[in-house]
Amino acid sequence: MLLPKKMKYRKTFRRRGQFGGKTKGNDRVCFGSYGLKAMTMSEVTSRQIEAARRSMTRYIKRGGKIWIRIFPHTPVTRKGAEVPMGSGKGTVDHYAFRVKPGMILFELDGVPEPVAREAMRLAGHKLPVKTKFVTQETI
User: Fold this and answer.
1) pLDDT tens, position by position, 86-122
2) Which end of the chain is more exposed for a tag (fewer CB within 10 A), N or C?
3) pLDDT in tens, 6-27
4) Would you say residue 19 lies in a domain?
């Protein structure tokens, strides 16, 4: 699973009100020929990224090359079960990445388009966002 090696602060604020709009960058297919583009907004965890990556790798039978364009660097905290209110913020449970509409999540190259389309479709089912298959010519 993906997680940061080192962080300046172990726990961060949630930034619930400042999470709107479309992506500013990361909206073009840069490395491969095909991409998986997010159409909605959500938080994608490191487990979901890994599940999508594994489903793509298995479908293309370890052929071609996959680029993961997102990295989960935001810590998400949880308090333990049956812990009373108060007594501070909980411990870090997992890491997530805030995905905005228009962002390219994965890229793929070295396989035919029908294979890439199906691999991206399988990966999209593992993610909490609606996705769209794009090619370099589409954008």
Assistant:
1) 989 999 999 999 999 999 999 999 999 999 999 999 9
2) N
3) 999 999 987 777 778 888 888 9
4) no
Q: What is the pTM of this model?
A: 0.91
Task: Report the C-alpha dihedral over residues 49, 38, 33, 114, rounded to 10 degrees.
Answer: 90
Pairing of β 42-45 and β 34-38: unpaired
33: left (phi over 0), alpha (psi -120 to 50) or beta: alpha
Q: Do 109 and 10 form a contact (C-beta atoms < 8 A)? A: no
Q: Is the residue at 62 inside a domain? A: yes
Residue 76 burial by Cβ neighbours in a 10 Å radius (0-12, 13-18, 19+) = middle
Q: Which domain holds residue 60?
A: 43-76+93-135
What does pLDDT average to over the chain?
92
- Numbers of helices and strands, H then E, in the chain: 2, 7
Residue 34 within any structural domain of the chain: no
Give the domain CATH number at 108.
3.90.1170.10
User: 9 is written with which tokens?
Assistant: 């602060």
